[in-house]
């Protein structure tokens, strides 16, 4: 389950974030940069307003010397927050700083933030785990330099999440994210996705929080288990014929055509060690959207491109059939997709094109309905 973190700067904004379903209320002053800390008094006020309805996180500015660092964390803990985030420095003494925070990690969930646009050092992850940190979160330091997803590919973000999970660390992602990024990031397996700009009027992270924007992001992230149960109950009614399933027989086609990329592919010895051109044609049959021009109703072709890039990043694949199967499988991970046709062609083998075309259907579609 991926949680939605909403950065807020006041108790009023915290109420909006809560009302529209944020899972973690993150105290932050966006005017003071990517990890701008609020004052202790402001954090206390938000903690009091949230009153345990959801966990609250706060940012600590990491002072240079150890004594002041400990004091800053102690003060943050006293505010009653459940998570404390801080920017992990990329200085040579980072491992020492991490080790010095081990006693603090026993008392509060510590999250180290790594900035994707400042050459993050992923070799520090084991030290975080050793010191008992709760997790690591990627964010962007300079919001005008693009979204996290522009800086790191979905494949690289998935690797980050997997490395965290191997070390039993929670993995968080944030960084000028926009609504269309959400379905793309869900496949990374991140535990938390964090937002500020996307929750504000006109996407301005220093502007006011917008209830509609918070609701949109909430709807794009699969809901909490209790809501899933509610949906299951609705499916039960559908199964018994009490209510009609929404547009259950109607599909539209989202496609990616003539997408050509260089790829290491082929079973012959001479096909190893270099790339050849591979063309992708993908047609995804998706459940028809009820509302038009609304992100919530959309399965994006970006997701198909991401899936292809992830397969490419995994290295040499001997058979185009394997590529087609993997691609079909990852497109079908998205619930709106009912069936997918994937055509994968090698363009440099013969004067024309050679390859494979497969069609795969979602089999759990009917099984989602309880007996
Ligand atoms: O912790 C999450 C952030 O506050 C993200 O802010 P942003 O979406 O404006 O980059």
From TrEMBL:
Residues 254-360 form the Dihydroneopterin aldolase/epimerase domain. It comes from Methylocystis iwaonis. Its EC number is 4.2.3.153. It holds the Pfam family 4HFCP_synth. The lineage of its organism: Bacteria, Pseudomonadati, Pseudomonadota, Alphaproteobacteria, Hyphomicrobiales. The keyword Translocase does not apply. The keyword Lyase applies. It is an enzyme of class 4 (lyase). Keywords: Lyase, Schiff base. This is (5-formylfuran-3-yl)methyl phosphate synthase.
């Amino acid at each position: 389950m991926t949680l939605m973190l909403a950065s807020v700067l006041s108790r009023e904004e915290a109420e909006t974030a809560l009302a529209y379903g944020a899972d973690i209320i993150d105290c932050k002053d966006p005017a003071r940069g990517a990890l701008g800390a609020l004052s202790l008094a402001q954090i206390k006020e938000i903690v009091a307003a949230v009153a345990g309805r959801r966990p609250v996180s706060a940012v600590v500015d990491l002072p240079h010397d150890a004594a002041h660092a400990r004091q800053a964390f102690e003060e943050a803990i006293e505010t009653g927050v459940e998570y404390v985030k801080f920017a992990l420095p990329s200085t040579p003494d980072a491992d020492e700083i991490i080790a010095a925070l081990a006693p603090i990690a026993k008392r509060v969930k510590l999250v180290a933030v790594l900035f994707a646009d400042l050459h993050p050092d992923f070799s520090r992850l084991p030290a975080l785990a050793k010191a008992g940190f709760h997790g690591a979160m990627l964010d962007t330091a300079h919001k005008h330099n693009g979204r996290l997803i522009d800086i790191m590919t979905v494949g690289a973000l998935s690797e980050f999440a997997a490395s965290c999970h191997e070390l039993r660390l929670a993995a968080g992602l944030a960084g000028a994210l926009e609504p269309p990024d959400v379905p793309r990031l869900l496949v990374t397996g991140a535990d938390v996705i964090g937002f500020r700009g996307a929750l504000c009027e006109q996407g301005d992270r220093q502007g006011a929080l917008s209830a509609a924007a918070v609701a949109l992001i909430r709807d794009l992230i699969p809901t909490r288990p209790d809501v899933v149960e509610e949906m299951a109950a609705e499916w039960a009614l559908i199964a018994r014929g009490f209510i009609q399933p929404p547009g259950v027989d109607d599909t539209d086609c989202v496609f990616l055509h003539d997408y050509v990329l260089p790829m290491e592919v082929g079973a012959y010895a001479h096909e190893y060690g270099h790339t050849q051109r591979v063309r992708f044609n993908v047609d995804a049959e998706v459940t028809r959207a009820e509302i038009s021009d609304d992100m919530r109703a959309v399965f994006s072709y970006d997701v198909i491109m991401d899936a292809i890039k992830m397969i490419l990043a995994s290295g040499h694949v001997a058979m185009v059939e394997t590529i087609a199967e993997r691609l079909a499988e990852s497109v079908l991970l998205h619930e709106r997709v009912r069936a997918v046709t994937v055509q994968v062609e090698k363009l440099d083998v013969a004067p024309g094109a050679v390859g494979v075309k497969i069609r795969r259907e979602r089999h759990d579609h009917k099984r989602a309905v309880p007996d």
